[in-house]
Design goal:
The protein is α/β, with parallel strands linked by helices. The chain has a single domain, classed as Alpha-Beta Barrel (TIM Barrel), CATH 3.20.20.70. It is 38% helix and 14% strand. A 10-stranded mixed sheet has the order 6-5-4-3-2-1-7-8-9-10. A hairpin with a 3-residue loop joins β9 and β10. α6 packs across α7 and α7 packs parallel to α11. The longest helix is centred in the middle third of the chain and has 25 residues. The two termini are 21 Å apart. The protein binds iron/sulfur cluster (2 copies). One iron/sulfur cluster binds next to α10.
């Protein structure tokens, strides 16, 4: 199972789609529970992946060090903005398997939303972490400024990221004209990316573009029971005050509380939203994002707009399945190379 462990509600940046630190009364900036209680829960899970989360997790390096010294997990990772990498020594970085770094693609796009000089710092630090043998994932936020094909191919060309993942800045942000942008830019870009993925596959190379790979994996190896991120059924988030939540974004929302580090927790038995139960894409999409479904900030119309985009992107990815099968039969790629579990990386698959 995936454990997203908040180290602090504090962040040193103020990216415009997020706004920076959490208020201390919602997500305290230090740990307010006994770490031994959490250790017990995590060490009872033989398939534990622990991802340090925040705020900016590296704003509390002392807790990360204490955790790595005391708690055993199958896999460790961190979701970081990539600017405070030097606060953890090489000795401790080497205990971490995976780093997800926030970057939106090309320099100007990244710096428009995340701040000046951020791009160069993140790229340099991604290269450093990769040189230590840590798997690196670019974690992009995609807005109306993004050209998805250009942003993704740019990040691939840098050769410092092993995998690429993105999320759309929709539903939890202020409403914008996503429909027009998707028609003119995003969906044509997705078609080009899927083509590129297929061309590389024909050469025997699997590009680790998670929104493509995660859907193919669901087709060949079995689909998702709920949001592919695992929210509430295969993934939990532990806040600094010891609450256990289904989704790490839902720090304000009571519906997300599954329990507490002291008293234990209960997973969701049926995480697929009602509205998705008859959807032909449910195994690949799992309702996309539990948080968006519950909060539904853009209302029914907004949901439909985003949903049409999700469905068209899924149709595009699924359209290559016959060719992918042929490539497997011809021995050009191995089926096992398409297997992907988003909860071992803390990614969401569906943008
Ligand atoms: S495509 Fe839409 S309706 Fe279908 S599973 Fe995903 S969110 Fe639900
Ligand atoms: S995809 Fe949605 S439900 Fe899953 S972690 Fe992200 S915000 Fe939460």
């Amino acid at each position: 199972m995936l454990w997203l462990v908040f180290t602090s509600g504090k962040c040193n940046l103020k990216c415009d789609y997020c706004g920076g630190s959490f208020p201390k009364n919602i997500v305290p900036w230090g740990i307010k529970y006994n770490i031994d209680k959490l250790k017990k829960l995590i060490e009872n899970d033989p398939e534990s992946t622990v991802i340090f989360y925040g705020g900016e997790p590296l704003s509390n390096p002392r807790f990360i060090i204490e955790f790595l010294d005391n708690v055993k997990a199958k896999r460790f990772g961190i979701q970081t903005n990539g600017t405070l990498v030097k606060l953890l020594s090489e000795e401790y970085w080497k205990k971490i398997n995976l780093a997800l770094l926030s970057i939106d693609g090309r320099k100007d796009i990244t710096e428009k939303h995340r701040g000046k000089h951020i791009y160069d710092i993140v790229i340099k630090n991604a290269g450093y972490l990769k040189s230590l043998g840590i798997e690196t994932i670019a974690r992009m936020t995609v807005t109306e400024d993004s050209d998805i094909y250009k942003e993704v191919t740019h990040l691939l060309s840098l050769e410092v990221f092993d995998k690429i993942h993105w999320q759309l800045n929709v539903i939890w942000s202020d409403k914008w004209n996503v429909e027009k942008w998707a028609k003119e830019s995003y969906l044509p870009g997705i078609r080009k990316l899927v083509n590129l993925f297929l061309e590389e596959l024909k050469r025997g190379k699997v590009l680790k573009i998670i929104p493509i790979l995660g859907v193919l994996s669901a087709y060949f190896f079995g689909g998702y029971k709920g949001s592919p991120c695992g929210a509430g059924y295969k993934s939990v988030s532990v806040t600094t005050d010891g609450r256990i939540l289904s989704c790490p974004i839902a720090v304000w929302e009571n519906w997300a509380v599954l329990g507490n580090v002291n008293s234990g927790f209960k997973l969701l038995e049926d995480p697929l939203p009602e509205i998705c139960k008859k959807c032909e894409f449910k195994e690949y999409c799992g309702g996309r994002c539990l948080y968006s479904m519950k909060e539904n900030y853009w209302g029914e119309e907004g949901f439909k707009e985003v949903d049409e985009i999700t469905k068209e992107y899924l149709r595009t990815v699924l359209s290559i399945i016959p060719t992918v099968k042929e490539l497997i039969e011809q021995g050009i790629i191995r089926l096992s190379d398409l297997k992907y579990d988003p909860t071992s990386d803390s990614t969401e698959v569906i943008p």
